[in-house]
Amino acid sequence: MDNNIFGYDHNNTWVHQLTGTSKLLFFILVSIIAMISYDVRFITLVLILSLIILYQSQIKWSQVRLIVKLILIFACLNLITVYIFSPGHGAYLYGTQHIILHLGYFTLTKEQLFYELNLALKYLVTVPISLVFLITTNPSEFSSSLNHIGVSYRLSYAVSLALRYIPDVQRDYQEISMAQQARGYELSKKGKFMTRIKGVSQILIPLILSSLDKIQVISQAMELRRFGKNKKRTWYMARKFSRNDYLTIVLAILIVLLGVWFMKIDGGRFFNPFK
Asked: Which chain positions lie within coiled-coil regions (predicted)?
């Protein structure tokens, strides 16, 4: 069951050994430059690098299967929506129109396909980096890293609690689901789709109630310990930078500079192969 839990997974890879601050800065810098650029060459290079880092972090497919499927579904729906509402946006951006299919308002062009390819790569490029960051970073260390870059420690601790709670919610869902199946509700793939939907809806109410109960317990415990009384606090999980941390930040800066260089030679954010 634990293999299906999306959350922090302790391991001994070089990625796990990095501090949360260096991983957070790498994630923020690389994500921003990847979102700004529309150069397919640059985005592809960043995607390959992020996949290599994902592989070296030794994250199992069972740990991220659900979240990756949801992201892919969302990405596909968004690409379809972009085409439906603006099928000529690619031709407008690149200044040319190479028609593939004449479909009236929905005329398909090479420029539109290239534009949506860039969008798809943008969705994909941040997925490995974000998964590596979330799964290889201890939530307490993550809150410490947020505080170190200037975020209020109250907000940092709230984010840490949210990350810690993700595996708990999934575990509660599985336990409630097994209890419902023991009472005769078919929630597995063997059951009909509408039956499974109905069963899932019956799980949500006890799941929400149990979550609210846990939130109340945690908030009361924090109040009893006078959390938030002082303006600053120390962090038990805070660590000093190692050589790899500095190299990670340098790599992030180099990626940003490379993205800026690509935009300079392209004359803007968009790489136009149709000129």
From this structure: none
Query: Which tens digits make up the pLDDT trace of 178-234?
Result: 777 777 666 666 667 666 677 667 777 777 777 777 777 877 787 777 776 777 777
What's the CA gap between 160 and 143, in Å, rounded?
5
Q: Check whether residue 170 and residue 252 sit in a common domain.
A: no
Cα-flanking dihedrals φ and ψ of residue 265, to 5°?
-75, -25
Count: domains in the chain: 2
Same domain, 65 and 134: yes
DSSP 88: T
Verify that 256 and 222 share a domain, yes or no: no
d(CA 30, CA 27): 5
The reply to whether 132 and 15 lie within a common domain is yes
The DSSP code sequence of 138-204 is -HHHHHHHHHHTT--HHHHHHHHHHHHHHHHHHHHHHHHHHHHHHTT---STTS-HHHHHHHHHHHH
The predicted-structure confidence for 41-76, as pLDDT tens digits, reads as follows 999 999 999 999 989 988 888 778 878 888 889 889
Tokens of 253: 């800066």
Domain that holds residue 194: 151-236
- The reply to whether 145 falls in a domain is no
Residues 43, 5: one domain? yes
- Considering the domain architecture, whether residues 86 and 165 belong to the same structural domain is answered as no
Number of other CB atoms surrounding residue 252 within 10 Å: 20
Whole-model pTM: value is 0.75
Burial (CB < 10 A; 0-12, 13-18, 19+), residue 141, is buried
- CA neighbor of 128 nearest in space, from 31, 226, 245: 31
Cβ neighbours of residue 178 under 8 Å, at least 6 residues apart?
Answer: none
| One domain for residues 211 and 263 | no
